[in-house]
């Protein structure tokens, strides 16, 4: 059985919750568990979070972005960027559809340059897409 002090404390808590959330939500908040898990150091949590967030394709994309101006040339690097990987296939985002027509004949050369800089099997195929294309899905 609850003591008088415990009951008073519960009433005060309910009153504060009712003021804060309103009467309807105070009941729900009042019934919520009182236990909050102990804080854990972020260094302990980061490896698991990064493992979930970082995919092999993301790592490949970051490696490619580091050498992209050397691969495509400084003139095109402003308008053409590595978009995403789907498996070993690279989808290159191009800012304007006219550039797709210009670059289409040299996609094999682009792939060769990428593989020369980052390893023989880094990229199997290069596909050009318009920036903001829905083909990422």
Question: Would you give an account of this structure?
Answer:
With 137 residues, the protein is α+β, with helices and mostly antiparallel strands. The protein has two domains: 34 residues; 81 residues, GMP Synthetase, Chain A, domain 3 (2-Layer Sandwich), CATH 3.30.300.180. The chain is 58% helix and 14% strand. The protein has a three-stranded mixed beta sheet. Helix 1 crosses helix 2 and helix 4 crosses helix 7.
Under CATH, the topology of the largest domain can be stated as GMP Synthetase, Chain A, domain 3
Number of domains: 2
Named CATH architecture of the largest domain: 2-Layer Sandwich
Overall mean pLDDT stands at: 85
Q: Tell me the Rg in angstroms.
A: 28 Å
Count the E strands.
3
Main structural class: alpha+beta
Question: How does the major sheet shape up?
Answer: 3 strands, mixed
**Distance between the amino and carboxyl termini:** 59 Å
How are helices and strands ordered from N to C? HHHHHEEHHE
CATH class of the largest domain: Alpha Beta
| Portion in beta strands | 5-15%
Superfamily (CATH H level) name of the largest domain: DnaA, N-terminal domain
Contiguous helical run count: 7
Unreliable segments of 5+ consecutive residues: none
Entry keywords:
137 residues; alpha+beta; GMP Synthetase, Chain A, domain 3; three-stranded mixed sheet; 7 helices
Secondary structure topology:
Elements: H1 4-21, H2 23-31, H3 42-53, H4 56-72, H5 74-77, E1 80-86, E2 89-94, H6 97-103, H7 107-118, E3 125-130
Parallel strand pairs: 2-3
Antiparallel strand pairs: 1-2
Helix pairs in contact: 1-2, 4-7
């Amino acid at each position: 059985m609850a003591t008088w002090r415990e009951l008073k404390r519960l009433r005060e808590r309910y009153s504060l919750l009712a003021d804060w959330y309103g009467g309807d939500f105070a009941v729900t908040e009042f019934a919520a568990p009182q236990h909050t898990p102990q804080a854990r150091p972020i260094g302990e949590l980061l490896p698991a979070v990064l493992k979930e967030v970082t995919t092999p394709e993301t790592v490949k994309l970051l490696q490619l972005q580091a050498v992209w101006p050397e691969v495509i040339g400084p003139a095109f690097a402003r308008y053409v960027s590595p978009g995403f990987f789907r498996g070993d296939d690279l989808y290159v985002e191009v800012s304007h559809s006219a550039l797709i027509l210009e670059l289409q004949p040299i996609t094999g050369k682009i792939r060769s340059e990428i593989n020369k800089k980052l390893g023989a099997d880094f990229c199997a195929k290069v596909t050009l897409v318009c920036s903001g294309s829905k083909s990422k899905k």
